[in-house]
Design a protein that fits this description.
Blueprint: E1 3-6, E2 13-16, E3 24-26, E4 33-35, H1 81-99, H2 114-143, H3 149-177, H4 183-217, H5 228-269, H6 273-303, H7 310-355
Length: about 350
């Protein structure tokens, strides 16, 4: 079994075999001769002849009160290079179990996914809280009873605050997921975060532009928007708003695509084919769902609610059920992802300890 020895002259570390213990070797760096210590439990028979070299002079006595006296002797005070090399070798061997996983172990330690796991849990709970209040608000809106108007108002206020807080928590969780030690997953999570940040910033800028244009066109000295210039401003604001909504929708779609590919990358890293397949299937279904929702809204706007007052409520009900199913599926994928990471971390840690001889 190779052992690591430090040269007392140049402090260069090199490896020797067990059969070389008890002999003299030359340092590969400076060429100094070094007598290796005998292996533990070696027989004392047939001792090697001692070298006829006069003993080195004793180091000068350290006066009392010197702080070095109570500690380890310095290199200048130690005049025997063989003893110094043996002491370093013994210190190295004794210190190895306490140091734990370092450069002499077989392979690097398992990757640290703690930040990613915490971020996924934050995203999971934030989306779950937002989903609960969104479902409650939609249910009260569909019922439309006067007795529930106060409940709807209170739920809308609490739900609105919860959605804002949940959105912030979820965004922070996605930022933490971008710290994943696996580079493909980290880049995809960061791309999703950047798309969402761009969409939020674009929504704020777009809302400010549209609101400022409408306020300018509806000033007090021109009620009813009879001025053609003001009507033109309103048309321009509407066109800008329509283009902005399309761009924001594309940004959010890109964010969902990057986020699902992030989960697929995690499935690839931890060899979870089910997670990888679910992420890809969810991505395809989400694109079809988004396209179908836009087409249905355009159809309703162009056809006057399909000619039946009950059709808008039916559309809202179907949309609520489908969107709820998509969000629940999203939560399931998040849960599977961080469970896969935790399981992979445990397996990697067990294999690492087994290689290190801890079992």
């Amino acid at each position: 079994m190779p052992r690591t020895i430090a040269c007392p002259k140049c402090s260069e570390r090199f490896q020797v075999q067990d059969e070389q213990l008890g002999t003299q070797v030359a340092c590969p760096q400076c060429g100094a001769s070094l007598k290796l210590p005998k292996p533990p439990g070696a027989a004392a028979s047939n001792p090697r002849p001692e070298s006829r070299v006069s003993p080195a002079p004793m180091p000068p006595a350290i006066p009392p009160g010197n702080p070095i006296a109570a500690g380890r002797p310095s290199r200048g005070a130690d005049s025997d290079p063989v003893e110094r090399g043996r002491q370093r070798y013994d210190d190295y061997e004794d210190d190895r179990p306490r140091r734990g996983r370092r450069e002499w172990d077989d392979g690097p330690p398992p990757e640290r996914w703690g930040t990613t796991i915490v971020g996924l849990k934050m995203v999971f709970w934030a989306v779950l809280i937002m989903l609960i209040f969104v479902i409650l608000i939609q249910v009260f809106t569909l019922i439309g009873s006067r007795d529930l108007q106060a409940v709807l108002g209170a739920t809308a206020i609490v739900g609105g605050c919860s959605i804002i807080i949940g959105g912030i928590v979820g965004f922070v969780g996605m930022c933490m997921c971008a710290a994943a030690p696996y580079k493909p997953a980290s880049r995809l999570a960061l791309s999703s975060v950047l798309c969402i940040a761009a969409a939020i910033l674009g929504a704020l800028v777009l809302g400010f532009i549209v609101a400022a244009t409408v306020a300018e066109a509806g000033r007090r000295n021109n009620p009813g928007f009879n001025n053609p210039a003001d009507v033109n401003m309103l048309l321009q604001a509407g066109a800008v708003g329509l283009v902005g909504v399309i761009v924001l929708g594309l940004l959010m779609l890109a964010a969902v695509i990057c986020w699902m590919l992030f989960h697929a990358a995690i499935g690839t890293r931890f060899q979870n084919s089910g997670l990888r397949a679910q992420s890809i299937v969810y991505l395809v279904v989400y694109i079809l769902y988004a396209a179908g929702s836009v087409a249905a809204q355009l159809l309703m706007a162009g056809g006057g609610g399909f000619g039946n007052p009950q059709q808008p409520k039916l559309f809202m009900l179907v949309s609520m059920i489908v969107s709820t199913a998509m969000w629940v599926w999203f939560l399931v994928i998040c849960a599977i992802t961080y469970r896969s990471i935790e399981r992979g971390q445990r397996v990697a840690a067990d294999d690492y300890d087994r290689r290190d001889g801890r079992y």
